[in-house]
Write a structure and sequence with these properties.
With 248 residues, this protein is α/β, with parallel strands linked by helices. It has a single domain, classed as Spore Coat Polysaccharide Biosynthesis Protein SpsA, Chain A. The protein is 29% helix and 24% strand. It is built from 7 helices and 11 strands. The protein is globular and about 50 Å long. The two termini are 31 Å apart.
């Protein structure tokens, strides 16, 4: 590493200050960073009570305010333009870091043709979530949604393996790669961006790596199953993925 910031972490709040504050506590107190310098970029996607931002933190913290709500990719792309780290992490506000070590992910990105990586993702009860998957097809969606066949595409293990794509709860990119590929496709609003970016990386000969030696905890809300607007964004994302014009 050089003297510049090693890691930039982008977190977007949708009125989720309590969750983000808990994540910031983890970032402040735990030894997750293994001595690497880091900065945090928080995007407030909608107006909210900002009292939780007043707590002193032992790291650089920048807050971006949106005049109007933006999508997942647009928010993280804007944060990237404000970032200075050699690595760029996309982190959900409902992630917790007990037992997590970023060094395992940084080491994985030293592999030839590494484009992005992510850790195991666990539920609060310790169960391993289905965060590493093969690219969607109509047949696979039919099995998952209608026939309820939810067997994981990849099994947990100890080593790092290439996968088709990783769910975007915690993704780490080399900043040079993120810049080269143009970040996330902003034509998507809230879902499928993580699928698309791994497909886009593959066009550059770059891999998506699942780092199974370390894990984060994810308290998933599953909004698309309860909220019609989120469901519409999900369906629209799949339609664009299957029928839209791919990036070049």
């Amino acid at each position: 590493m050089t003297d510049r910031t090693a890691l930039s972490l982008s977190i977007v709040s949708h009125g989720q200050g309590i969750l983000v504050s808990s994540l910031l506590d983890d970032l402040s107190q735990l030894h997750w960073n293994n001595g690497l310098s880091f900065e945090i970029i928080i995007t407030l996607n909608i107006p909210e009570d900002e009292g939780w931002l007043g707590k002193p933190r032992p790291f650089p913290l920048r807050v971006l305010h949106n005049k109007a709500p933006r999508g997942f990719g647009a928010n993280h792309n804007a944060a990237f333009r404000a970032a200075s780290g050699e690595f760029f992490a996309v982190v959900n506000p409902d992630i917790r870091l007990a037992g997590f070590e970023i060094a395992e992910l940084v080491a994985a990105l030293e592999q030839p043709n590494a484009g992005v990586c992510g850790p195991l993702v666990k539920a609060p009860n310790g169960a391993i979530e289905d965060s590493a998957r093969r690219f969607p097809t109509f047949g696979r969606l039919l099995l998952r949604k209608l026939l309820r066949q939810r067997d994981p595409d990849y099994r947990p293990g100890g080593e790092t393996i290439p996968v088709d794509w990783l769910a975007g709860m915690f993704l780490l990119f080399p900043s040079a790669v993120y810049r080269k590929i143009g970040g996330f496709d902003e034509r998507y609003f809230m879902y499928i961006e993580d699928v698309e970016i791994s497909r886009h990386l593959r066009r550059y000969g770059l891999q998506t790596l699942w780092v199974r030696k370390t894990a984060v905890v994810h308290d998933a809300s599953r909004a698309s199953r309860r909220n019609l607007r989120h469901m519409r964004w999900h369906v629209t994302g799949f339609l664009r993925y299957f029928f839209g014009r791919p990036r070049t």
